[in-house]
Amino acid sequence: MSTRTALKYLARSTATVLSRNAVSAKPMLTRGIALGRLSAVPQVRPTWSPMRAASISQVRTMFIQTEQTPNDDALKFIPGVPVMESGTAEFLDVRGSLQSPLAKQLFQIEGIKGVFYGPDFITIAKEAGSEWQLMKPDIYAAIMDHFASGQPLIKEGSAEPSDTAILPDDSEEVQMIKELLDTRIRPAIQEDGGDIEYCGFENGIVKLKLKGSCRGCDSSVVTLKNGIENMLMHYIPEVQSVEQVLDEYDEVSLKEFDRLEKSLGEKSA
């Protein structure tokens, strides 16, 4: 083979390899859902062990799906592995996130204002002015680094008791409310990246707190009244209405929204 022919063959082979690599490096899309990037391989070569090898293999094959929620400022991240073994957990500030290594890491990303753990997903809420496209790479990296590290999601002893657990002194009506919330209502709300917390039943009124993507969502009132309230009243005649319980975080958000709405009204007048 002549030198010129050999060079042509080498150039053609190199172009083929580069083309194949370029195809394999394209972002994957499944049903229109964007998948997260793979975690980078550390530069320092660690001591080999079967456990570490399994961990690295898991990271390399892990991908993260994202799904929209009814709340534009909340996005649902699905890592493809179980998140919470039972119940849910929510963190609304840096101080509260100290109970969870992953939440603590996520709160270091500029623009994040809430982290919610579901059975197989993580809902992240952002500040209104922040851009998802700028935040996503850091969020993907934090989630994948956590699951590769082997650390617990929540520190031992920090998990909250189930709000819908049947207690010995629960009345028949309360037991039915909790059962409906757990089996019929909660799964549907978690599909949208949110959750509900049972806070009590008194004088025919069921008190619930909205969590995850449901916080600050424009359709939350519709969800409470047209969805949850109608179902509970249909199956339990003793239920007369459903009311939302606001915590300090919700009250501050509502005050800020009212102040902004009033300011915009004055400018347009």
UniProtKB/TrEMBL annotation:
UniProt-listed SUPFAM superfamilies: Fe-S cluster assembly (FSCA) domain-like, Hypothetical protein SAV1430
GO CC terms: mitochondrion
GO biological process terms, semicolon-separated: iron-sulfur cluster assembly
UniProt domain Scaffold protein Nfu/NifU N-terminal: residue ranges: 64-150
Pfam families referenced in this protein's UniProt entry, alphabetically: Nfu_N, NifU
GO terms for MF: iron ion binding; iron-sulfur cluster binding
Family in the record: Belongs to the NifU family.
Name assigned to this protein: Scaffold protein Nfu/NifU N-terminal domain-containing protein
